[in-house]
Design brief:
8 helices, extended, three-stranded antiparallel β-sheet, alpha+beta, 2 domains, 13 strands
Length: about 270
């Protein structure tokens, strides 16, 4: 019993020492690819210039393109590989080059360490009754326990990091309060923006090969319940009538083109 009590006390002291380091921002947490900790504890950017440029390129492409899938498509088209430092496993301690994926692009854009910040408490155990009790989920930024800015060399400013997070949240497909969604390609004005009035999910766009009065034929279709539960589709509305109503409501009648209305004017007015 005495031995168990001493072990418990030792663990409490170790946890207290760890929290003091966390509060000061000196705790040696695992760094993302692109940042390296030296023997003296200082953190610097990775000495490999190709790795630094590849990470910087992700932020540059997102700055100009605005969505993760577009960044992925652009990098894949250009044959760009992304660096990945391995902790553990067969290639422990090695810098590998892998094809870009949505997962590693979003992990770069969402990691505050690239903005020079030491953050603790970004993730927590899931409380949703999952079969895996150790499954961890991301916490909202306002619930992060410790945030110390200007602790690491940065690839982007803290302001740009916050703007990127907000952009990613707004681009999200799942509907939540104040989330607008990302406009998609195509002549339909509300592609990627229309919400089903029946189930509240985002609607997809279907097109036909014919045109009516110079505008693309097609409409907005909600297949969410059909795809998840096998039930009939919720709602279908014609694109030309819906887009016309939107343009009239926004006073953008002069924005029509040969393929439909001016999407940029409508998106800018949302």
């Amino acid at each position: 019993m005495m031995s168990e009590a001493q072990l418990h006390l030792l663990r409490l002291r170790m946890d207290a020492g760890k929290m003091r380091q966390i509060e000061k921002g000196t705790y040696r947490q695992v760094l993302p690819t692109g940042l390296v900790r030296l023997q003296d504890g200082r953190v610097v950017k990775h000495p490999d210039g190709h790795a630094r440029r590849a990470i910087g390129l992700v932020f540059e492409r997102f700055r100009s393109l605005g969505t993760g899938p577009k960044v992925l498509k652009s990098l894949s088209k250009d044959g760009v590989l992304l660096p990945r430092f391995r902790y553990g496993g067969l290639h422990n301690g090695e810098l590998l080059w892998v094809r870009p994926t949505n997962a590693n692009i979003y992990s770069i854009l969402r990691n505050p360490a690239y903005a020079g910040a030491f953050v603790y408490g970004r993730r927590a155990r899931a409380q949703d009754g999952s079969a895996n009790p150790d499954r961890r989920v991301n916490k909202p930024m306002e619930e992060w326990l410790i945030v110390h800015q200007d602790m690491y060399p940065s690839y982007v400013s803290w302001e740009e990091f916050l703007a990127n997070r907000e952009r990613l949240e707004q681009n999200g497909y799942r509907l939540t309060q104040n989330r607008l969604g990302a406009p998609r390609r195509g002549p339909a004005l509300l592609a990627g923006l229309a919400i089903c009035g029946h189930c509240g999910r985002r609607m997809s766009v279907v097109y036909s090969d014919t045109k009516a009065q110079g505008k693309a034929r097609g409409g907005y279709l909600c297949n969410a319940i059909r795809s998840t539960h096998g039930a009939p589709s919720c709602l279908y509305v014609a694109a030309h009538s819906t887009d016309g109503a939107v343009v009239e409501a926004l006073g953008l009648e002069g924005g029509a083109s040969s393929t439909g209305y001016d999407r940029r004017a409508v998106i800018g007015s949302r």
